[in-house]
Amino acid sequence: MNKIFTCNQPVINIYRKPDIKSEVISQILYGEKFYAKNKIKNFLQGYSVHDRYQGYAKFNFFTIFNKNKTHKIKSKEAFLYFKPNTKSKTSKKLLFNSKITLTQQQGKFIKEDKYWIQKKDIEQIKNSFNFLKNYKHFLHTKYLWGGNSVKGIDCSGLVQELMKSANLRCPRDSKDQQKFFKKKVSIHNIQKGDLLFWKGHVAIAISKTKLIHAFGPKKKVLIMPILKTINTIKENSDLKLLSIKRP
User: Fold this and answer.
1) 135 CB contacts (<8 Å, ≥6 apart)?
2) How far apart are CA 13 and CA 56, in angstroms?
3) Are 143 and 215 in contact, with CB atoms under 8 Å apart?
4) 120 CB burial (10 A radius; 0-12, 13-18, 19+)
């Protein structure tokens, strides 16, 4: 097959096997690209173009890729409208980091495919080093293994989505993220944006004393003191902090 497709749903699952009862290992958002190597029954076998994460996704949730997306959703959620006015709001939404292309503009609205979106909810895709600008979008988001959206996310997915919001590449899993980022720092020199790694877990420093993470035991994304987190994980899971890396 060897074709590139585009996700046409707000968020879809990538499965370990071509079966919806299989483990969800990742997700991709509206407008993101999926490279398909094979079609097995009603599943595409391939990987997300962003991170080359291999898996299976439902075929009917994609359209053939025809144009690179130029803008993305910057709000936590963005409503879709039938017409370029607020009275025509639908129940449909696109989620933070979804990719779109402006096909038409009218007043305070832009058109993506057959729907309209308010301009205040979008921004141009461009590189930035401030990947923590929108971390509050994820506060209290439920913990979801394999999740990559504001509807549900896991610890490494949170890191990846925040990096993605600044157009920065980042692997999907925490063990690969730890290898990918090379610069090590000590706990005494930690600063905003540094990544803290344990076996099977990662958190992001938002200051010298606090971090944000999708914390499985609490089943949500939350902010915690750095030292308290290190002690809590050590006491409850007997896991030591492995390293701190600076992107």
Assistant:
1) 162, 204, 206, 212
2) 8
3) yes
4) exposed
pLDDT digits (tens, 9 = 90+) for 49-80: 999 999 999 999 999 998 889 999 999 999 99
d(CA 180, CA 176): 6
Question: Which residue type is seen at 196?
Answer: L
With CA atoms as reference, report the closest residue to 122 among 148, 136, 140, 103.
103
pTM of the model: 0.96
79-88 CB burial, b ≥16 within 10 A, e <16 = bbbeebeeee
Compute the Cα dihedral for 54, 56, 61, 63 and give only its sign.
Answer: positive
Per residue, the 3-state secondary structure of the chain, as one string, reads CCEEEEECCCEEEEECCCCCCCCEEEEEECCCEEEEEEEECCEEEEEECCCCCEEEEEHHHEEECCCCCCEEECCCEEEEECCCCHHHEEEEEEECCCEECCCEEECCEEEECCEEEEHHHEEECCCCCCCCCCHHHHCCCEECCCCEECCEECHHHHHHHHHHHCCCCCCCCHHHHHHHCCCECCHHHCCCCCEEEECCEEEEECCCCEEEEEEHHHCEEEEEEHHHHHHHHHHHHCCCCCEEECC
151 token code pair: 């509807």
CA atoms within 13 A on the CB side of 78: 28
Residues paired with 152 in a beta bridge: 149
Are the C-beta atoms of 177 and 238 separated by less than 8 Å?
A: no
Cα distances from 13 to residues 35, 111, 155, in angstroms, run: 15, 26, 17
Q: What is the spatial distance between Cα 224 and Cα 246, in angstroms, rounded to a whole number?
A: 19
- Summarised one tens digit per residue, pLDDT across range 186-201 is 999 999 999 999 999 9
